[in-house]
């Protein structure tokens, strides 16, 4: 099935993706690209980003998704987003383990330059701050690296991937109540670290 140029309706895309249409899948990937790139940057950490660019990681994930369309039963955009982002997370974790084994110490080497892709950070920064200041994104990434692993995971699963606490609890082996508490503490820590970074104080 070939999509008309102006067809971006979710129902049409769903039908097309279910039928194996690569163009429809590409349109869905494009919809989630800003958030996917933010998700990958935040979950990769400095060691991995010292070796591979976020764009390379995103392209690698998208290539795998495009080549593995037959394994996914399309039900909704949110289900597709979850599948896409968790595929990205698995790739990031695999590569992270590989570079961690080499014990390389390095800082983040890739700045966010594309204004369109900055929009992926809207769920963690206000839209006005994302639009006006790349340094806010850089600061967010720097303080995000200081969070414990479970804090990073719950924030990205909830804010970027859009999972509810029942889904997060199942993935993290917690109760929904524990997931809510963890998210509250994680966001509070992120807020304190961000405020300290903005004021020039240490963590």
Describe the overall structure.
Helix content is 69%, strand content 0%. It starts with 9 loop residues before the first helix and ends with a helix. The protein has ten helices and no strands. With 203 residues, it is mostly helical. The chain folds into two domains: 8-111, Rna Polymerase Sigma Factor, Chain: A, CATH 1.10.1740; 121-203, Winged helix-like DNA-binding domain superfamily/Winged helix DNA-binding domain (Arc Repressor Mutant, subunit A), CATH 1.10.10. Helix 1 (10-18) packs across helix 2. The protein has helices at 10-18, 22-49, 54-67, 77-101, 115-118, 127-132, 134-144, 149-160, 165-172, 176-199. The model is unreliable at 1-8 (pLDDT under 50). It is globular and about 55 Å long.
- Count of separate structural domains: 2
What proportion of the residues form beta strands (DSSP E)?
under 5%
The low-confidence parts are 1-8
What's the name of the CATH homologous superfamily of the largest domain? Answer: RNA polymerase sigma factor, region 2, helix turn helix motif
Strand/helix succession: HHHHHHHHHH
Helical percent range? 55-70%
CATH topology term of the largest domain: Rna Polymerase Sigma Factor, Chain: A
Give the end-to-end Cα distance, rounded to a whole number of Å: 54 Å
Instruction: Tell me the CATH architecture of the largest domain.
Output: Orthogonal Bundle
Q: Work out the number of β strands.
A: 0
Major sheet characteristics: none
| CATH hierarchy, class of the largest domain | Mainly Alpha
Summed over residues and divided by their number, the pLDDT gives a mean of 76
- Radius of gyration, in Å, reads 18 Å
What general outline do the C-alpha atoms trace? Answer: globular
Class by helix and strand content?
mainly alpha
Number of separate helices: 10
